[in-house]
Amino acid sequence: MVVTIAQQPFSMAKVSASSWNFAVRLWLATILALLVSFWLQLEAPSTAAVTVAILAEPTRGQALEKAAFRLVATIVGVTASIAITGLFSQARDLILAASALWLGLCVFAAKLLDGYRAYAAVLSGYTAANIAVQQIDNPQHVFEASVERGAAIAVGIMSIAVVNVFMSAPDRHPRLAAQLAAIHRRVRDYASATPRGNRGNSATFLALVQEIVGLRPQIESIALESSSGSVRSAAARSAAVGLVAELQAARILTTAPAHFDIAARDQTSAAVDRLDGSSLQWRMPARSVDLQNHVPDATTETSSWKIRELLRIDETVRQDLLALRSVRWPSRLQRAPLYRSCRIAADSAVRATLWFAIAATFFVWAGWSAASASLYLVAAIAALGLTTPNPRGYTAIALVGAPIAVVVAGILEFVVLDGADAFPVLAIALAPSTIGAALLTTSQNPLWSGLGRINLIAVPTILALSNPQTYNPQTFLFTSLFVVAATAVLLAAQMLIPPASDDKQRMRLLAEARDELQEPDTKDSDPNEAAFRDASRIAQFLSAGGVRDDHALSEMLSCFDRSATVRLCNAKLMQLAEGPFAQLAHQAHAAIAARDTASLRAIAIELREKASHKDSVEADVAACLVLTSDIIDGRSGAHSFQEAT
User: Fold this and answer.
1) How far apart are CA 161 and CA 156, in angstroms?
2) Exposed end of the chain (fewer CB within 10 Å): N or C?
3) Would you call the peptide bond into 468 cis, given omega within 30 degrees of 0 as the criterion?
4) Reduced DSSP (H G I as helix, E B as strand, rest coil) percent helix, strand, coil of the chain, to 5
5) CA 129, CA 78: separation in Å to the nearest integer?
């Protein structure tokens, strides 16, 4: 008997080798940043170390993209701080008010973005708060402070870039290609489930939507990994957009009318059986099959069209994935637009402004002369928290992590270092805390990951490393007090004015989906890109606890089905915009805008009768019109969430 043993990845202390590599790289980058900062005699070397901690990303492309956005955001924030202090140099209250308004504006922009673009927007907000507020008593020194901060950030960026190159930080694109290929197989499995006798499962559909949309920031980050990164990013983006289109086509395919004949089901099963990942070559199924006399021809034609559409999109996705693996441009460049809710963004911006204003009022009332550092932390935690699904939970984790960071920093400064001024001693002393916190950030547990990230940033901030290092217990005590006070005051402000509830966000997203159904559809928009945008709205709906609201989720999916089908039908009708059927195409556009399903069916019958043959464009458009009329009427659409689960 031959016994096979599954090969397990190397690990140490139950932590993977890749996590250890990431943690060691981060420690070396921190030491390099401090060394260069000390050599250049920068006034704030800790800023370089904090920059390295902020740019702590596991892959090279992600770190480079975040570094680029951090540099741009710093320039924007510095410019804003100079403008604010220049306009209100004689009025401290107006500087605080302007900083709060600028923070709200940046949060508004962040809520309309995702990934590192959202991070850059909030960074612009709290950078201005950092410089303008900390120099509130010395506005004439804003420019010098901005230059020092920019220099330290540049040192931190260069340090982590150099370490990543010399230690061969992994690229993201191999894993991304594997993820997209795995999702493609699951989409094919989803398409084949119902024709084999299983009802379509909306839970599977929703999980796939979240996974595909969730890869969007990572797809953008691989553009900076190498000289061919932009090609890989374009291919991966087109594949992701195609996967959403294929998922939607599979969802429509699984919703046959109740009287759909067994022979037609066999045709559908035979078609999806060709979606076999082990065989990349397959033939189109027959256009039609012999059905019982009671099955209407329109139903047969629509079923055949659904099958051909699914197989066409599947082949496009396969070609895009092949382009990603072979590093070549895809046949068609696709955008992956993100759904942006201006109402939700404005609501978040107002709350961020009020939180900062409440904290500023408290610190001014308390009369603490060194409270500017706390206001900077309030701005940073509030802005970063609003880019997460649970802003108050983010602040709570920060409140737990702040005392831990104080203890770690105190042990480092007064027990481990204890007056030492040799740089090698500092490098060795920082190893346990930096590597340990970096390992925590790789945890799948959000609590441990959050605590690790907070300690990476807070420990060097509290230490305030300098050359030579000062060991002043009173300064350390005040710094620690203000770090903890900042998170406590922010949490109190969030209790007084809580973030928008999940229910409120879900209802807004659903209302916006309803409103879009009532508006005329844009005829020249790409239906696949529009479907991806709507899929990102579904992902936002689910992030707001939408899976628990069966009725609202069912309506959201219905809006998605109708919008996608209407856009696809409009795109198909554009093929008839010129020629003998132009008038019918114009009438069909008008009927779709008016949601006149009776006219759509009448036009479909006329097109089918005038079609030169069964495989003509006119016949395809006729089948699409029948499907659109059924989707609008709700007679053939995706099963409700309650029924499917």
Assistant:
1) 9
2) N
3) yes
4) 75, 0, 25
5) 9
Rounded CA gap, 626 and 530, in Å? 21
Tracing tokens 């892959």 back to the chain, one arrives at 59
Q: What is the DSSP letter of 331?
A: S
- Which residue from 567, 568, 555, 564 is spatially nearest to 509, judged by alpha carbons? 555
d(CA 411, CA 455): 14
11-12 and 15-16 as β-strands: parallel, antiparallel, unpaired?
Answer: antiparallel
Q: Please say whether the beta carbons of 25 and 159 come within 8 A.
A: no
15 forms beta bridges with: 12
Q: pTM to 2 decimals?
A: 0.85
The dihedral over CA atoms of 108, 109, 111, 112, expressed in degrees to the nearest 10, equals 130
Contact 148, 45 (CB under 8 A): no
H/E stretch holding 12: strand 11-12
Type of residue found at 507: M
- Can you give the pLDDT at residue 549? 81
Q: How far apart are CA 607 and CA 617, in angstroms?
A: 10
For 240, phi then psi, to 5°, come to -65, -45
H-helix or E-strand spanning residue 556: helix 550-573
The crossing angle, in degrees rounded to 10, of helices 446-463 and 473-496 is 140
The residue assigned the tokens 């139903």 is 299
pLDDT-flagged residues of the chain (< 50): 1-8, 10, 197, 256-262, 277-296, 523, 636-645
Full 3-state SS string of 216-262: HHHHHHHHHCCCCHHHHHHHHHHHHHHHHHHHHHHHHHCCCCCCCCH
Question: Position of tokens 């055949």?
Answer: 304
Unique residue bearing structure tokens 């609201």: 549
Question: Which residues are within 8 A (CB) of 97 and not within 5 positions of it... i.e. 6 or more apart?
Answer: 357
Amino acid at 4: T
Query: Helices 297-326 and 229-253 sit at what angle, rounded to 10 degrees?
Result: 160
Q: d(Cα 600, Cα 622) in Å, to the nearest integer?
A: 9
Among candidate residues 249, 245, 242, the one with its CA nearest the CA of residue 194: 249
Both tokens assigned to 613 = 């043959």
**How many whole angstroms separate alpha carbon 535 and alpha carbon 537?**
5
Q: Which residues, 6+ apart, have CB-to-CB distance to 62 below 8 Å?
A: 116, 172, 218, 221
Burial class (CB in 10 A: 0-12, 13-18, 19+), 519: exposed
pLDDT for 520:
53
In the block, residue with structure tokens 């460049």: 333
Residues near 169 by beta carbon (within 8 Å), at least 6 away in sequence: 25, 58, 59, 60, 63, 163
Cα–Cα distance, 167 to 277 (Å, whole number): 36
In angstroms, rounded to a whole number, what is the distance separating the alpha carbons of residues 82 and 79? 5
- Helix, strand, or coil here: 373? helix
Structure tokens at 281: 């070559």
11 beta partners: 16
The two structure tokens encoding residue 142 = 């804003």
d(CA 378, CA 367): 17
Say what the pLDDT of residue 255 is: 59
Q: Give the residue carrying structure tokens 């997203």.
A: 509
Q: State the Cα–Cα distance between residues 578 and 249, nearest whole angstrom.
A: 27
Give the DSSP letter string of 53-92: HHT--SSHHHHHHHHHHHHHHHHHHHHHHHHHHHHSTT-H
Per-residue pLDDT, 6 = 41
Question: What span, in angstroms and rounded, lies between the C-alpha atoms of 364 and 366?
Answer: 5
Q: Identify the pLDDT of residue 12.
A: 55
DSSP 596-640: -HHHHHHHHHHHHHH-SSTTSHHHHHHHHHHHHHHHHHTSSSPPP
